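Risk register update: the risk of archive-format incompatibility is retired. Evidence:
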Amino acid sequence: MKNKYSIKNEHIYFTLIHIIGVILFVKLGDISFHSLDKWVLGYVIIGATLLLNHFKIQLPPEGNSLSMDSAVYLACIFVFNLEITLTVLLYSSLIYFCYQRSTPWWAHFFNFSLYTIMMTGAYYTYIYLGGVTGEIEPSNLLSYAGALTVYFIINVLLISTYFFVLGRTSLLDALKGFLKGTIESYISTLLLSIILGFMLQAEPFFGLFLFLVISILLSFTFKQHFNLYQEVSNKANIDHLTGLKNHGYFKELLSETLDEVKRNKTSLSLAMIDIDDFKKYNDGNGHLQGDHLLTFFGSLLEKECSPKDYIVARYGGEEFVILMPDTTVSEASSFIDCLRKKVNDTYFEGVELLPYGCLSFSAGIMEWNSEIHTASEFLSHADQAMYYAKAQGKNNTHIYGNEIGTIDIDQPMEEMEQQLKLFLARDIYTYRHSKRVFRYAVEFGKQLDLNDYEKKVLMLGALIHDIGKLEVPRDIINKKGKLTSDEWEMVKKHVTWGRDIVAASKKYEDILPLVELHHERYDGKGYPYGLIGEEIPKLARILCVVDSFDAMTTERPYQKTKSYYEAMEELQACAGTQFDPFYVEAFIDYFTGKNESDDIREYQDSKSSSSSINETKV
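Archived output:
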């Protein structure tokens, strides 16, 4: 991505090349061939140059090609002189500009100036080394080689300097990149220019015609070979099922990208993604349908990542990787989280069998740093983060290094975890929801003015706040669609049932208010007691905000997920009614501070909506 400094340097560099090119053309070139014979020959050469520039010879790897127009320009220098050659260049450039209007004018101007400088250097080197225009002689071989060498050196130096000016690479690395595989092309250009020179000298029109025919035939032949090369290369590098890059090719790209990042000191993030409960989907729908899901998921990733030029690959089985150049870990986390929500909202046949009733994935994210020395180490860290995300309840993203360590809270945490695992058998949604609310509570609690005791109580309460749902009938918990009034009354009882479960042990008394009162509302319209404002314990008010945010932004049977933007809008709209306004603002500050997605920036730039928004039942 260009910064203001590199853009300014680019403009200065372009202007300098343009000025040098114009000065050389005005002093050494001409706008006329001065005689009818030369005009006719000039037209033919101009037409030949344009055709050769169109029918380039494609060479592997992709993006590499050999244009014969340089051979024409060099032959003109050897047989005619610099003035005629520059005239041919002028009219060729003008005509090319007219039918290639999609290319910016300054790019055409830059190419014209570049060729002018290269031709001028090649001509005077040719003359200096004893070359004589008009005849192609074997005795002039040193002059031909010298002219081509200077032509080649000027081209490589000026183009390499352009990439250096942009700040994309060092000058030495740019030179190495252009020298690699181009020397052979320029030697071919020299030989072709000498051959064309002989033809122009003996029979100008027929010779140029033969040269054109041979060059165009070579272009078609090389194109066929190139397509065959690409086909074989794609089979080796592309995953046959999804059409994405495969494991082996991705590791090659990762190593190359890491080398570039180390040189240029740019940011690079990596996401390892695993489709949740894929085995369950396979078992329920069959392996053929499972393959269709992998193909669909791969296409979805490619569609979302293409606008950002992110590299997507299938790593193996139901695992995928996304390489994100020029992306910090916070930007990557926001992108992957938004992608996760789009996946949740995208229907695919058979996902009804999955715990959430929708497609979901878990992702681990890692940003490159100087302590990472190999691609394997980079991948390993992202993989570890992904498995941590799955352990936190799936449908989740996790940044490597942000693991919640062992909290000094003695036995309660372990016992609560064991209680929570009971949800795995009855209600996978509530289990995963509780794990995510716990993570939010840990992170948000650090931003609040809480003492250590309050932080521990908030974390324990977040982990176990929905324990009472164990008593709610399973068909109600997993019902899709709107609950009846009787069913809703049954669900509301989970807070008192949860209180009874937790109260069975005296050592959990401190978290009873969070379990029982996290659905009380700031305006007194909550349940079970209708407490108002600060009658509700502080930690219960905090948990209410966190719990509601996760409920709104995660797929569940009876309510469609909201975007982060929509969820924060709703929190703010309900501040002072459903939620404590102080903790709403604090949570929004915390959440927007840790995320940098377009969704979050849209919220930050928006004004609070005055329209009423339906309050969410959780």
